[in-house]
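sorry to bug you again but im stuck and you know this stuff better than me. below you get a single protein, a line of residues and a line of whole numbers that encode the local backbone shape. mainly i need to know what kind of three dimensional shape the backbone takes. anything you notice is useful, everything is just below:

***
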Amino acid sequence: MRIAMIGTGYVGLVSGTCFAEFGIDVTCVDKVQGKIDRLLKGEMPIYEPGLEELVAKQVKAGRLSFTTSTADAVRDADAVFIAVGTPPRRFDRAADLTFIYQAAREIAETMQGYTVIVTKSTVPVGTAREVERIICETRPDGDFDVCSNPEFLREGAAISDFMRPDRVVIGTESARAQEVMRAIYRPLYLNETPIVFTGLETAELSKYAANAFLATKITFINEIANLCEKVGGNVQDVARAMGLDNRIGGKFLHAGPGYGGSCFPKDTEALLRIGEEHGAPQHIVESVVKVNEERRRDMARRVIAACGGSVRGKKIGVLGVSFKPNTDDIREAPSLYVLPLLQAAGAVVAAHDPVAMETAAQEMENVTWCKDAYDVAAGADALVILTEWNEFRALDLGRIAELMHEKRICDFRNIYKPEEMESRGFSYISIGRPEILPAGDIRKRAKA
């Protein structure tokens, strides 16, 4: 079995490497010579735990190779996966399918014998049909089938997600293509991973529906956190009580500064557009998008309020700028919204992130990038935790207190306990948890 993987971005590189781990010969293709040169040297263009070691293992085994030539990769392939980028267009935020269709034409021009062409990228409903039309137009005599095989990989846990997935979704209308896809995913089938075969449109929609639902869970618990703050509840306890209900589950019920990343923002907006185009508006998802946008702005307002209503001339230290831990991805990260708003209010911003600073420096201006959390805290009037990296979970709080100009922490990931922070003399702001007040104050608030 031979596979060509078109695209060496997050999805393509992880998927291609994991297919090689299954024992399949995989050739990954990318038009950017620089990326291929780096991969040939063993350098990863993305940060993903365990990926560098797995790539090296598969290259050494001779099952994984890299090239800029689509023709060389496709010519002898049994299946060709399209895993190129589908970024939102600037003028209407719809998915830009230029690279998908370009790949389809190049595949049609070079494929030999029966070939299964698989859309792996997240694409709007109807894309697989259009890929099929393009290939038929370019190669009328072509022997092929088109499948949709959406990915469900979490950045930071992508390898384990691929090797031990909750399910694999494959959209196809061809029994012949179905057998090829069964063979490709046979190692997972033997482990009793559910393999869900559907139609093309169903497979495409399943990715958007899943991500929109997870984004809804995040947004829902953030709004519950706001309510907890008003009534004196604890959102972490509420989330735990909810999550123990098997119908709900505890994942994605963590209050914070809002969702970000390469998938949820893009996919929720895409689902809204699909609904509009087909006369089936997605009102719940529309509300989710609006609430999440406001959430990120509210985080900046909370920092300003914690500093007495003004941050002008004050040093605000930020811990974490990636949208989540274990990735260098800052696409649609809360930091991209919170930091500029603080700067616009007159703050001097210093920040540290374990792996995302180089990427972030290309997007954020006038930020002082620091070597570690203690460098960030030095002279700071407030310390803001935006990403829950493990190294931020056990800081030397005594040292932090000595370094800061004002002992003020805005923990927007709830990684510390309010009681501990109060005992150390910090002014501590978290998400959806009650303030710690002396008994007399509690009685006063109850009477009010």
About this structure: Residues 200-231 form the longest helix (32 residues).
